[in-house]
Amino acid sequence: MNRTGIVARVSIPSLADLHAIGAVQQPSYADPVSRDAAVETLRRMPPLVFAGECDALRDRLAQVSRGEAFLLQGGDCAETFEGVTAENVRNKLRVLLSMAVVLTYAASVPVVKVGRLAGQYAKPRSSDTETRGDVTLPAYRGDAVNGFDFTPQSRAHDPQRLVDVYNASAATLNLARAFTTGGYADLRQMHVWNTDFVRNSPVRERYEKIGHEIDKALAFMDAIGVDPEEFHTVDFFSSHEALLLEYEHAMTRVDSRTSLPYDVSAHFLWIGERTRQVDGAHVELLSRIANPVGVKLGPTSTPDDAIALYEKLNPDRVPGKVTFVTRFGAGKIRDLLPHLVEKVTAAGLEVAWVCDPMHGNTFETDNGYKTREFDDVIDEVRGFFEVHRSLGTWPGGLHVELTGDDVTECLGGGNRLSSLDLATRYETLCDPRLNRAQSLELAFLVAEMLAER
Ligand SMILES: O=C[C@H](O)[C@H](O)COP(=O)(O)O
Ligand SMILES: C=C(OP(=O)(O)O)C(=O)O
Ligand SMILES: [Mn+2]
């Protein structure tokens, strides 16, 4: 045992052993020599995050499981290498931090802030191939695996991209650390950040009201002598889906303080709905690391699946270790979530329950865009709150796909985007994201739900 409460199980299965266990949704590399070279390069790279930071996040998630804090996790469905610019990262952080401020102030609850960024480059897909006209090529699986351009060269699986993921993640995390600790995220800035766009936005009144309240609260704290440095930095953590075994295995290292393995590619890793087989390689690898981990649970998950996953991922019952991210869809959550939460609670398992209101609500419009209705997103979150309220459990957080830009990818919201508007700025390479206005609107609605409790 050590301060993490985890019994040291230093052995990590080899990559070959993991593949032998069986892993779905993996790339097929044509050349094993260049694959191994990329993995060896990654093994020599410095950590992107530190084990102590992962421990700090695990402690914060333990607060979430106990009902003492709320998790806000968000970012792109799929980050892209082209998107590693100061403007793009800053816009995403701005919207996330603004949402967090709304939640903190409107609901008076501490918010744990986690980006789906600095590593969210690999995508599981429903189909291995994509057909356009009479041409069929491998599906785009994220910049970590292949390119989006519809050519055989671009769609080939290229292991050098794993090294590119490391570099893109390092650059993104460096920016995120600078923005969140260098004064940019100072609470006093937040009001200013959004004034330009809230002017014409449906959230204007509510946003300005909250801005004035924060200004008043800060002036009061100033007057009583609270150190202004207190509002200068925010705690911010990184996360992505742990999908590619080559990458996650190469980034798993034994921490010298605790003798425990940590996946140092991100603070928090999650297992997707398509790779959560309890006897599969993804669960095996994540059961060995000390980072806090999440599992997406879709409508086919049974309580027994959830309990087995918990037991495998957290045999030592370390607080904050396991987050269950449910993504049932607005039409199913009220029917399916109660049984799951009841059984897991009755088994005495302490988990953070988080709602992903995106992935169960995706459909294709007649004009060919993959999209989501803002109202369905809200309805799933509402269902999540209703179920937890009726069971006396804590609705621990929100996991969303969003961007800081004014894209047109999801329908509805205060600006009432229609399917015809989707063509204007549909930029995602995978799933549709909430834009800046829709994200803030969601934050206000969730803050009301939290405050009602
Ligand atoms: O982000 C999640 C999945 O990768 C995505 O929803 C899969 O999309 P697909 O059904 O178009 O493959
Ligand atoms: C792949 C994702 O979700 P899920 O595993 O829930 O389908 C995702 O979060 O982008
Ligand atoms: Mn997605």
UniProtKB/TrEMBL annotation:
Give the pathway listed in the UniProt entry for this protein: Metabolic intermediate biosynthesis; chorismate biosynthesis; chorismate from D-erythrose 4-phosphate and phosphoenolpyruvate: step 1/7
Keyword Calcium present in the record's keywords: the answer is: no
- One function term, GO molecular function aspect: 3-deoxy-7-phosphoheptulonate synthase activity
Q: Which cofactor does it need?
A: Mn(2+); Co(2+); Cd(2+)
Return the Gene3D superfamilies for the record.
Aldolase class I
For the ligand (phosphoenolpyruvate), the binding residues are: 116, 273-274, 296, 327
Q: Which reaction does it catalyse?
A: D-erythrose 4-phosphate + phosphoenolpyruvate + H2O = 7-phospho-2-dehydro-3-deoxy-D-arabino-heptonate + phosphate
Q: Does the keyword DNA damage apply?
A: no
Q: Which UniProt keywords apply?
A: Amino-acid biosynthesis, Aromatic amino acid biosynthesis, Cadmium, Cobalt, Manganese, Transferase
Task: Give the family from UniProt.
Answer: Belongs to the class-II DAHP synthase family.
Superkingdom, taxonomy of origin: Bacteria
- Mind telling me which Pfam families this protein's record contains? DAHP_synth_2
Q: Which PANTHER family match?
A: PHOSPHO-2-DEHYDRO-3-DEOXYHEPTONATE ALDOLASE (PTHR21337:SF0), PHOSPHO-2-DEHYDRO-3-DEOXYHEPTONATE ALDOLASE 1, 2 (PTHR21337)
Protein name in the entry? Phospho-2-dehydro-3-deoxyheptonate aldolase
**EC number(s) reported in the record:** 2.5.1.54
In the record, biological process GO terms are: amino acid biosynthetic process; aromatic amino acid family biosynthetic process; chorismate biosynthetic process
Write down how the cofactor binds this protein. Binds 1 divalent cation per subunit. The enzyme is active with manganese, cobalt or cadmium ions.
Which residues are recorded as binding Mn(2+)? Answer: 77, 359, 401, 431
